[in-house]
Structure formats: C-alpha cells, structure tokens
Amino acid sequence: GESVGLHLPTLSVQEGDNSIINCAYSNSASDYFIWYKQESGKGPQFIIDIRSNMDKRQGQRVTVLLNKTVKHLSLQIAATQPGDSAVYFCAVKNYGGSQGNLIFGKGTKLSVKP
Amino acid sequence: DTAVSQTPKYLVTQMGNDKSIKCEQNLGHDTMYWYKQDSKKFLKIMFSYNNKELIINETVPNRFSPKSPDKAHLNLHINSLELGDSAVYFCASSPQGIGNQPQHFGDGTRLSIL
C-alpha cells in the first residue's frame, strides 16, 4: 500500500518570500507524483507532476523536487503571492490495494501575509 | 468552459433520504472518478470508471452506487443517507486509464445531512 504524509499542516510566509511544502511517501515502487492546489470552495487544481525517472521539474514559479532515496517530495513556490494562499496536496500513484489510483496527502495550508 | 462540472453544488437533505450527484466532463477523457473529502480536508478515492466500466471500487458502503451512462458522465447515487455521509464529493477525470496523467477535478458537491 501507500501512505502519504506532510511534515507541516500549516505554513505562513511573507509575500515575496519562497515557500517550501514537503511530502513523504512510503512505497519505493511509486513512480508518479502530483502536486495540487485547492482554494476555498474549489476543487483541487493540478500544479505540477514528476515521474520517478526525474529528480527535479520546474514550472512557472514552482519547482518539484523528488528524492527517491528518502521517499520525499517537495514543492517550492518562488516569490509567493497572496493568490498562492490555498491548501496544497501531494498525491502519489498507489501500487497496493486498488492498483494505480492516487493516494493524497493530508494537505498543507499555505497562508501568505501581505 | 467548465471542464469537469458537478451538480448540484450544495445538497442539504435529511437522514434516510436518497440523493444523486451528477458529473460531466468535456475533456474527452476516458476515466472518471469519485472522491470524498472529509471535514479535515482528507481526500480519498471512492470509485473509478474507465470508458463506462468500473475499475476501482474502494471500501465504500453499498449504499453508494455509481453509474456511467457514457464515458463523459459519471453519476453517484446514495441511498439511505447517514450523518457520516456529510462531506464534499469531488468528481475527476483523466485522459487514459490510471496511468501517469494528472486528474482534473470538478468544484465539488457539498453534502450536508440533517
């Protein structure tokens, strides 16, 4: 099976600073990882994904880092803006139980102070 | 244009009633999902259909019955609603099976049981 955890349930940052949100997973066979952003009253919105054959992937102001050795995933947001305030979820493809479905972490609430 | 749309957005009903939630996606995806998000924001998969066929059925009470009339629609019917069914239910879709593709979510149906 797969379990997904987050190191911090809440994160508060100053506008303009960089944010780092962490995620740990348990199954070393997991090969696909996704970060989602969920704003209040909305559904999870895809931000960025990474496959296990990579250890870093960059998007617009976001970077995902994958450390397969310690089974750790992080999302870095550069120059955090008030619009980045949301709950962020990591999701990992599951290889136990219902094979292939996504297991979601518990979420980290990011608050950006102006 | 809404990619994954759910109706209704809010559903308030009494214990013991039967209700349905509808979901439609206009992305041309083959696979659709139902997730349940509890009050602590924990998101867990319930069902998945690939091209109208059930491929994931997590441990969900049999009071919950999904139906996929075609690959663009996945509805969720709930019989004999209980207090514990209060949650936000999200529909999602993805391009192919449960491979390495991100899932796209609707904005949720907030179900409240009185």
Structural notes for this entry:
The complex is a heterodimer of chains A (114) and B (114). Chain A is built from no helices and eleven strands. Chain A is mainly beta and 114 residues long. Chain A has a single domain, classed as Immunoglobulins (Immunoglobulin-like, Sandwich). In chain A, the strands form two sheets. In chain A, strands 2, 4, 5, 9, 10 and 11 form a six-stranded mixed sheet that branches. Chain A has a five-stranded antiparallel sheet with strand order 1-3-8-7-6, with no helix packed on it. Chain A is globular. Chain A starts with a strand and ends with a strand. Chain B is mostly beta strands. Chain B has a single domain (4-113), classed as Immunoglobulins (Immunoglobulin-like, Sandwich), CATH 2.60.40.10. Chain B has strands at residues 4-7, 10-13, 19-25, 31-37, 43-50, 53-57, 64-70, 73-78, 87-94, 104-105, 109-113. In chain B, the strands form two sheets. In chain B, strands 2, 4, 5, 6, 9, 10 and 11 form a seven-stranded mixed sheet that branches. Chain B has a four-stranded antiparallel sheet with strand order 1-3-8-7, with no helix packed on it. Chain B is globular and about 35 Å long. The model of chain B has no long low-confidence stretch (mean pLDDT 91). The interface between A and B is medium-sized, with 25 and 25 residues.
